[in-house]
Design brief:
By secondary structure, the first copy, chain A, is an alpha+beta fold. Chain A contains 9 helices and 28 strands. Chain B: Its cofactor is Mg(2+); Ca(2+). Chain B: This is Fumarylacetoacetase.
Chain lengths: ~475, ~400
């Protein structure tokens, strides 16, 4: 499809075309590029070729050291840019392909490039939108009865994270020191965290913002969502547990948050969209489903057309004729339908395979500890963005909104060591005699992910970090 | 003391010399100034006069549209700048005083200036460091037994706020809409907040930062603390109450946070320092410092006039040392706020939540007006100053007016 050769297993197929910021030894200037195969197309070299109706007046956005200006041009600019990049890379397009001088300047080997943070991040928000993760954590800390807080199913719970410590893949993470209270009968202590953990997440960049006081309606949310990266929201569980009541996580999180460098545009993910998690208003059990005129299994989701019947629990709304019921192993309770400002019918959940691996010091190979998928999310990115701005809060180009730890229903899909080791009660086997409950100094954690197409992939590169020992005191 | 006349009751005495960013109608460029009396000294016009050992090589910081570059030069640069400004404004110094042309260009009436956010704020952190406030809120929501959480007396509790919605005094605040659950036996509802509140706070700007992974030791914290402003951390209590468990306040706060425009340098506050709160239990060593770093600043909120000493349990040094102890990196322009400031007397409570005791009694505004929470059209003004002998070191205004919620 492109005159640049791309391996079938490469993350950076012609169908991807993610944006990133890079520099090289001979040219240390931070500049914008597009990944293709094992190459980078340097947009600053070819900016004069973007002469469409939107970008023609704004070619300088590709001279910037970050993506913010380009993102801020808005939805039509991103679509136009993608068209132009696709055209310029096409196997049958000669503009770049046959201009040896331009082509030589425009392409850089990924292996000789250093990647940087792709945007200036004004604010970073972390959501908590995986139902399995929130439930696991709730069970561990509050018991099965009170696993999910009452608000969890009603709004996408989130909190402000620290923007200054969002770092690009490859940056080492120093084990944090802090205050902890391992024994509640004794005073708190100070020292290096003993419960350093990973959190498998994905995050999206806000492309265009909104004015303070003017919410983004959910039907317009997609116009503000630029693209996605992988994230590791490193966490110090002992520091977090002692500090977080009542104002939320703080130093247990803000010592470092790693993201992958290549921002995959939403257009590249569209072929991998799936139906959203079902969020409906009735509590119903399968044996009260009287009329099964239309039953369509979709994973663990069944859709049936029934006459609404109120069961035992008081239910919110009036009757409906079509219901979707989410069944899970532990109970048959369907999830409440969110308020109108959070509702959207179009699918915006994506099938993205995700992997977490650990390579300890002395290990010859990394061991995969988690295989998960972005499709497990309960709240969509549109719902998160609409919720975030419904009170008038203003988002800006470059803002980063993360999903929260991604866990699926199976233990091998749990996205944190807290869950994989079930709060340290069992070990995570790394093979070759190695095992973990939490991270050790020297551990290198790598998160990868890709969408599987037919004969190609749309992938995210690497989100990696290595643990350095805590500072000596 | 200065050749510029300053009224005894002016916030901007010769002892203050706060920094701000302003523009004028005839020159809309954002530039750095120092307030003196009812004037602004435009530093971009006189930057060539800063030829000391530190600033001489960096005069361009006074050409910037924000204070970040100047703050980032560090502690010695701030001290040197203050010396030079004091010298140039001194009654017996002729450089500015007698150069009519330069003087005409260098001074602007405050009344003809528009003030802007003084810095680009990379991160905004809100602490919770008033013991009376935390106790009041705890009593209201958890009962007297469990008023203060076990961690409150052990570490300065804080959370990340939203940087994008920190706005300068004078910017209107639109009543937020959001999700609330006034009746726990019914499903949540959507609508305009009915419990819009104020929070009297102060905040400091980080001047110089630290590298990721390298904490700021408490004995060096003062080298990173540039100066202070007033803050109103507007809050929607109903939105906040429904969302905040377990990850903290979010939309109940981030629809707007107002700060006053003039950043008072720590050196101007030094004469008003007082002993720190006695801390019991004694905090861990990384949080201990003996030198006083608590400041006597009178604060007023116009909704209900009150006078309260700034008497926080945790000092700004402790907050900064705690914030970076895990390696978190702060940067020039970061804003760290104190949390709602309340004193022991009901007169001195810093929020309507406390003044009305969760809506159980009205706040009398006089003239037949009363409130539990804010109404559309209410204008809230926070002011503050340190009282010297025959002069004040004050903060100007931190003001906002409530606009009605958007129609749906």
């Amino acid at each position: 499809m492109s005159f640049i050769k791309v391996d079938e297993s490469s993350d950076f197929s012609y169908h991807n075309l993610p944006y990133g910021v890079f520099s090289t030894r001979d040219n240390p200037r931070h500049r914008i590029g597009v990944a293709i195969g094992d190459q980078i197309l340097d947009l600053s070299v070819i900016k004069h070729l973007f002469n469409g109706p939107v970008l023609g007046q704004h070619q300088d956005v590709f001279d910037q050291p970050t993506l913010n200006a380009f993102m801020g041009l808005g939805y039509d600019a991103w679509r136009e840019a993608r068209k132009y990049v696709q055209m310029l890379l096409a196997a049958n397009e000669s503009t770049l392909r046959d201009d040896a001088h331009l082509r030589g300047r425009a392409f850089v080997d990924q292996s000789s490039a250093v990647m940087h943070l792709p945007a200036e991040i004004g604010d970073y928000t972390d959501f908590y939108s995986s139902k399995d993760h929130a439930t696991n954590v709730g069970i561990m800390f509050r018991g099965k009865e009170n696993a999910l807080m009452p608000n969890w199913l009603r709004l996408p719970v989130g909190y402000h994270g620290r923007a200054s410590s969002v770092i690009v893949s490859g940056t080492p993470i120093r084990r944090p020191q802090g205050q902890m209270r391992p024994d509640p009968t004794k005073p708190p202590v100070f020292g290096a965290s003993k419960q350093l953990d990973v959190e498998l997440e994905m995050a999206f960049f806000v492309g265009s913002g909104n004015k303070l006081g003017e919410p983004v309606p959910i039907e317009k949310a997609h116009e503000h969502i630029f693209g996605m990266v992988l994230m590791n929201d490193w966490s110090a569980r002992d520091i977090q547990a002692w500090e977080y009541v009542p104002l939320g996580p703080f130093l247990g999180k803000n010592f470092g948050t790693t993201i992958s460098p290549w921002v995959v545009p939403m257009e590249a993910l569209t072929p991998f969209v799936e139906a959203n998690a079902v969020q409906v208003c009735h509590q119903i059990t399968l044996d009260h489903c009287t009329t099964q005129e239309h039953k369509k299994p979709l994973g663990s989701i069944y859709t049936c057309l029934i006459q609404w019947r109120k069961i035992s629990q008081p239910s919110n709304n009036s009757s409906q004729h079509q219901e979707a019921v989410r069944l899970n192993p532990s109970n048959d309770i369907a999830d409440p339908q969110p308020l109108p400002y959070l509702q959207h019918q179009d699918p915006y959940t994506f099938n993205i395979n995700l992997f977490v691996s650990i390579k300890g010091e002395g290990m010859r190979e990394a061991a995969t500890i988690c295989k998960s998928n972005f499709k497990y999310m309960y709240w969509t990115m549109k719902q998160q963005l609409a919720h975030h701005t419904v009170n008038g809060c203003n988002v800006r180009p470059g803002d980063l909104l993360a999903s929260g730890t991604i866990s699926g229903p199976d233990p091998e899909s749990f996205g944190s060591m807290l869950e994989l080791s079930w709060r340290g009660s069992k070990v995570i086997d790394l093979g070759g005699g190695e095992s973990r409950t939490f991270l050790k100094d020297g551990d290198e954690v790598t998160i990868t992910g890709y969408c599987e197409g037919r004969g190609y992939r749309v992938g995210f590169g690497q989100c990696q970090g290595k643990i350095l020992p805590a500072l000596q005191q």
